[in-house]
Amino acid sequence: MKRRLAFAAATAAVLTTTLVGCGALDKAMDCVATADAIATSVDKLEQAVSNASNDPTQLNEALNDISTELGNLKDTTDNADLSKAVDDLTKGVDSVRTAVNNGDTTPDIKPVTDAATEIGKVCTPG
Fold it and tell me: Which of 73, 99, 111, 123 could form a disulfide with 104 if both were Cys (CB 3.0 to 4.6 A apart)?
C-alpha cells in the first residue's frame, strides 16, 4: 500500500506540475508529503494490530504516532480535499482508539485504510 500511495503521489506531482503550474505544484507537494506520511501511519497501525496479542501497548503507541502525524499534516496543507481526507482519517483513528480503549485488541481498521485510499485518490490526477 505504501508503495502504491507514494507512486501515485509522485506521479501526481510530476504530471500536475507539467500540465498546470504553481497552484498544482502546491497540491502535488502536499500530496507527496501526505501520501507518504499516511502510508507509514497505516503500516504502523496494521503492524500494531497484528502484534496486539504480543504487545497491546503497540496499538496505543501507533495511534498516538498517527495522531501526531495527522495534526502536523492538517497544519501544513491548505488544500481543501486533502484537509477533508485528513479529517476522515482522523475520525477513523479516533474510532480505532475508542475500540482499543474499550478492550478490543483487534479493532476494525477499515475506516483508516479507506481514508488512506481516499488520500491516494485525491493525489491522483484525473
Answer: 99
